Amino acid sequence: MNAGRPVRPLEASLRAEGPGVAVTPHHLASTAAVDILHRGGNAVDAAIAADAVLGVVAPETCGIGGDLFALIHKPGATEPVALNASGRAGSGTDADAVRSAGHKAIPIRSPWAVTVPGCVDGWEALAGRYGSLALAAALEPAIGLAAGGFPVGWELAQSLARLSQALVPQESAAGLYPDGAPPDPGTMVIRPGLAATLERIATEGRAALYDGPIGEMISAATDGTILPEDLSMSQADWVDPVSIDIMGQKAWTIPPNSQGYLTLAAAWLFEHLEPPRDPADPLFTHAAIEAYRAVAWERDLYVTDSAHSPIDPGALLDPTRLAPKLDHIKLDARADWPVPQRAPGGTAYLCVRDRDGLGISLIQSNYHGIGSTIGAGSAGFFLHDRGSGFSLEPGHPNELAPRKRPLHTLSPTLWTQDASLSMLLGTRGGDFQPQTLLQMSTYMLWAGRTADEAHRLPRWVTQEWRDGDSAVQHEPGYSEANLSRLNGLGHRLAATGQPMAGWGPVSVITDTGDTGTGAADPRVATTAALAT
Questions:
Q1: Which residues are catalytic?
Q2: Cα–Cα distances in angstroms (integers) from residue 221 to residues 114, 173, 216, 228, 407, in the given order
Q3: Which residue would you say has higher pLDDT here, 369 or 448?
Q4: Fewer CB within 10 Å, N or C, the chain?
């Protein structure tokens, strides 16, 4: 629940329109992005700047100790390009050792959960291929905030208080705990170690993080699970995106090891169920819930390192594979599907469109909030725990193994119409991501709502009870008649009583050719859409 969490009223409009527009989870990151656009940078430069700032002011979501995915569309291109900058397990990884220690799953607060961070490799790849400014220019806003100080947000304050026992003794926490105590929201804090690390990255590139003293700190922090030779290998790969035609547009996402295909597959099923177009109609909600449930259960079978995938990534969105699922979805009752595994998240999603129409959909994450809570020595940042996405089941396609990528929940999307950019859409939220993006895309493309209007419609998330029931939590805003009908269709309902910050924030930019219109999610108090 959101107890005590500042949330704007859902009636609030957080909209910005202009030739250049940025939408991020934090106003300081949005400001940094727009400043870079004003300085002559393009959307990719601005996205790197925003992401670096988020890693400073919101480490409970992302940072240079985590991974990155991005989709980029350049005007005139027939399709976007995709970047997978997710890290691999270290050469010292040993699944048998984890199992021998009595674990059935990889402990999130352990070196076993740490994979090589991919974020900085992602920045370098993005800047090298698309950037119009030097990487150093994009990192200036983040360096200034880390060295000069910033006010602690509510979510960061809660994370620092909850994790103080693990974080306070570590050098990388220097400045985050004034006088050794968790800061209240609004308290000014600094991050001198991170500022120094970012300055080194600005001048030396990836070598500053992956080689030399900081690389040695990462290896030492993981008890040698990650070795110098692992860090020397770039974690950033340009890959072919996967796509499918949905509701008059073509939707694109990152192929596995991302779970992004779930959003697109569920949206395709929703469209082909031909539900009513009014979101207030209970059959609209029922169709969306059932479309998601029809694919959610299979994620852990198919989402793994692409080199170990049991199915070609492109085949996951083949309509001939999806169509038979329609035979098992009923508009007059809940269907039974296997129980999916839970996957939480600590993530930041942002999108930027510049004056020339270049658009980027970027997502970056530490996973479980501040990740593993293991600091990289005195370098000022914490290492993510994406390795906990591996399976310990012997022979499983996603079984933990050296130099292998784990299952990832990060699910950015990019939408085109007649080969032109039409929408950038994404969110945080672990296994809530495809559910939330399904709702936003259907509200906009099937029901005809604007992005701003879609943000203000109530959301739901579904989880599976062990007896197979669909347990649906929902925000306020559904009518009693709607809820009664959903209950009659077999859904077990639970009201949240308030808007849920964890069911977002969704960031979205719609593109009309000459301008972009950004809409930020009021569910998180720090979000901002800004335009040039």
A1: 347
A2: 9, 14, 8, 12, 23
A3: 448
A4: N
